[in-house]
Design brief:
A hairpin with a 2-residue loop joins strand 6 and strand 7. Helices cover 32% and strands 17% of the residues. It has 2 domains: 39 residues, no CATH class; 77 residues, Winged helix-like DNA-binding domain superfamily/Winged helix DNA-binding domain (Arc Repressor Mutant, subunit A, Orthogonal Bundle). It is of the alpha+beta class.
């Protein structure tokens, strides 16, 4: 492994190497190889540069007509699994309102809850992804100037 202080080779002695994504390592790779610890390499995860950016999610018009603007906004904001609190922050809706919308979307088979420790994260189902992909192919807009399938900005 090359390091800013030079290059060195370590024998792990069968311990293995722990690879640990860390938002706090960005933009560097951090290694720790000491006798008392598991050999570890911390690296920046994909997308960490956008971690603190505002998403600016908007509801696609066709989906808003079908589900209602707020519910469509919640579904569109779930491009990655998120908690009720995170969705409330992303959409500008109250946590209670987001919770009610998620309950309806879950009943409709469009979102699934997943428990991660003390947190419940919600993710879109394959049905919701198909619905959004169909809307994107019909020209619906997902977020300000964003193409849903490529994620690239439109000029």
């Amino acid at each position: 492994m090359k390091h800013r202080q030079g290059s060195r080779t370590w024998s792990l002695g069968g311990q293995g190497l722990l690879l640990m994504p860390s938002a706090f390592a960005w933009p560097h790779v951090i290694s720790k190889v000491t006798p008392d610890w598991q050999p570890t390499v911390r690296y920046p995860p994909r997308g960490v540069g956008t971690l603190w950016e505002s998403r600016g999610t908007t509801a696609p018009e066709a989906l808003a007509a079908l589900l209602g603007r707020s519910r469509a906004l919640v579904l569109a904001a779930l491009d990655s699994p998120a908690s009720t609190t995170a969705l409330a922050g992303d959409t500008g809706l109250s946590a209670g309102g987001v919770s009610q919308h998620l309950t309806v979307l879950r009943s409709a088979g469009l979102v699934e809850p997943y428990r991660t420790g003390r947190f419940v994260l919600y993710a879109r189902t394959a049905t919701a992804e198909s619905l959004l992909a169909g809307l994107a192919s019909a020209g619906a807009e997902f977020g300000p100037g964003r193409d849903r399938q490529s994620g690239e900005g439109q000029q």
